[in-house]
Amino acid sequence: MSLTVKIITPLKVFLTSETEQLILPSITGGVGILSGHAQLITMLETGVIKYKSEGVWTLAIIYAGFAEVCGNTVTIVVDGAEKISSGENLSDTQQAVIDATEQLDVLKQSGPDKKQLQIANFQVAVTKARLKAFKILQK
Prior knowledge:
alpha+beta
């Protein structure tokens, strides 16, 4: 049996796929989903989602949201999602994490408003997720 996975963002349906296995970045840690999984609703953090179809793992970045497992259907509703490109440069990706983290540190010291701090935290999370995905692809 397989799972039907649907990733929905505010702008579009990012993915609809039949998959054998799925790993989600839950706020409590990675959650693996197989066919016949118990019913579940979980909050997701910005991170890497991995799904396996025909024996091949595919990665994507998702921005925080939630997932519902009901029967063999997994519905993922997130703030955004992006495909991963294996053509990215490791040093550029590492530098993006450093830059985003430094920006966040500068903002914290200058007493930013709440919105600026949320945006900076989000940028750090996304760049870290991209780096993690890039490292997985390099294995």
